[in-house]
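Technical appendix A lists one of the benchmark inputs used to test multi-chain prediction within the project. The record comprises two sequence entries:
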Amino acid sequence: MIAADKPIRAADAKLLHVDAEGSVHHGLRTGLVKLLHRGDVVVANDAATLPASLHGVHERTGAPIEVRLAGRATSGMNTFVAVVFGAGDYRTRTEDRQLPPILVEGDVLALGPLQAVVVSLLEHPRLVSLRFTAPMAALWEGIAHHGRPIQYAHIGQKLELWDVWTAIAGPPVAYEAPSAGFALDWRTVAAMRDKGVKFATLTHAAGISSTGDPALDARLPFDEPYFIPETTAVAIDTARTANRRVVAIGTTVVRALEHAGRDGVIASGPGMANQRIGAADTLRIVDAIVSGTHEAGTSHHELLRAFVDDTTLRRADAELEARAYRTHEFGDSIFMERSLTRQVGMRSTGSWRRGGTAHYVERALAQVGGK
Amino acid sequence: MQQALQGLRVVVTGGTSGLRLALASALHDAGARVGFVARTRDRVAEVERLHGATVGVVGDVAVKQDIHKMVLQLLGRLGGVDVLINNASDLGPTPLALLGDTECEDFERALQTNVLAAFRLTKALLGSLTASAREGRGALVLNVSSDAAVNAYAGWGAYGASKAALAHLTKVWNEELASQGVRFLALDPGDMDTPMHAAAVPDADRASLKRPEAAAREFIAAMIDLLPQPIPSIAVSRRAS
């Protein structure tokens, strides 16, 4: 696959379709609605993306740093979990970025108009809990004006906020874009309605996808808070009762729905997705996924193993490679139906983590928007 | 008025004078949570002092690059938006000028504020507005119009043409999004006794002009008419604290 290096939603974007029998078909993303059936419910993540990258200075040493906000802490509205990089910017691959100066509790970070204090270290030299000193209004203003979306070395230009907001972006709670949602535009949403396909949303605070640091990346995805509106829960339960499909736009939606539906029925309201999903897991709620194309070994790719067996996944990957699909946030898409062979049995999903990052990432979106 | 708009999240654009001030007070009295944008920090602070729970954001709606910065703060602090009132208006040349005497830059500024700002802000808030509609709270965009959008008055060319464009934009938005539950309405508040009217018609008899408070009441009535009653509460966990 080749990297999509411009932040545009290409009009001729491709869509690889893996059907329930494991057959692979090629099409255009504009044809997505043709693959949906009357009565299906399509669920998307309406989180808007925060400008979560803040450049500044580590005051004790004067060293330049970049802070990437990665989650909100339970201990207060202005406290975040963050990944800290040393000198440099997005033009350097994250794998090659320097470590920050050695951080200790109480260190002050000057981040443009904002000031943050290191509250605690989180078992890694890059991972800290930070408390901003500004009151909420000034914090939002400071993040809006000084923050930049987390940038990618493979994108040739600087990403602006409007580049990383999907058409349906609402609550600003994601740290990186829920990029499968770039497949949606209002024409597509209207076409779903015309076809009798129900469109619904949830809000899932998508965290950072990669830090370039193997030890940290092994801990991803962090626990992520989500919120499922009552109307969305009802739409899903209605579709399932009628034997219609639940189609998730993106891995974050799969993660939220499988967490909220772990007892077989979707619970509306706030929750904290703390599970990993992979080959060992049986999906209880989601029947198909629309996603970007992902490389083997990433947590996104791992999640696809819950939809199809490895032989099918390898065949799909080979097709993506052979037809030069574009990968990464602004690339082409896949529509993958859960294979018939993965629909038998209702074995409980296997990799629920206890503890983990839950103690320092907030419990719910409840606090995300506070003033 | 009773708390007919309890919990409704309303964003209003425009300075801190005239209709916007009257709207902020009326919305506040009706129980709504108001977010507003103004160009200077002093004006924001002034309104936040008047109405404690009001969320004020500094920015210029006519500047394209400011839109997402403002929307980020509004959504972050309000948690979402149910109603957008595009009230910010630019007269074009002041004093008013015949079209032949109108500087291109003055016309462009009127279009930026009266047409493009309303378009951009609506587009950036569409995710939140449609979410409110799907969740049964209703969603509404009110665009402040003028009879100059309909009638040709000498000297009102830049303003009238821009308001006519806004009125048409409103209709097309409504055509495209009514099926998603978002309603769009252009409202003409009439000739009001505001600083803007004074700039346009300095020698007007102020006593003959409508009070902005009366216009604000009409806006509230339109909202009550077009939104579900009572407005379903936002789930506790989604509400900004």
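The helical segments of chain B are 18-29, 41-50, 67-78, 104-134, 157-177, 195-200, 212-226. The first strand of chain B starts at residue 9 and ends at 13. Comparable benchmark entries are summarised in Table A2.
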